[in-house]
């Protein structure tokens, strides 16, 4: 069990540090560009994640005063359920109106063709007698 843990723990720590580094905004990576930190984490997979957690990421608010959670709140798109989204409901109404207009045009064309067919049949019957 300890033998497996010796390989699993550094691997898990490397994966976690890699994902954390990728999700960190560029201005919160300390000392080196974010791309350099990615290479350090992946190349030195035992020491790299520890160095990233110790020295690579700002753990306090940057000089601008915003915290990472505020940044994520401001840049996250707000998801709204379709039945609560007025734009979506309006688009359904507009689409329904278009479909009804097409249906009315189609029915009018069908009636016109039926009337023409009836006139031809009635005209043809008169010629036979």
TrEMBL record:
Claim: Transcription is one of the keywords in the record? no
**Which organism does this record belong to?**
Streptomyces kurssanovii
Question: Where does this protein reside within or beyond the cell?
Answer: Cell membrane
Give the top-rank taxon of the lineage listed in the UniProt record for this protein.
Bacteria
Q: Which UniProt keywords apply?
A: Cell membrane, Coiled coil, Membrane, Transmembrane, Transmembrane helix
Q: How does it sit in the membrane?
A: Multi-pass membrane protein
The parts of the chain that form a coiled coil are 89-123
Span-the-membrane segments of this chain are 35-55
Highest classification ranks of the organism: Bacteria, Bacillati, Actinomycetota, Actinomycetes, Kitasatosporales
| Region of interest: Disordered | 60-86
Give the Cardiolipin synthase N-terminal domain ranges.
Answer: 12-56
From the Swiss-Prot or TrEMBL record, give the protein name: PLD nuclease N-terminal domain-containing protein
InterPro entries referenced in this protein's UniProt entry, alphabetically: CLS_N
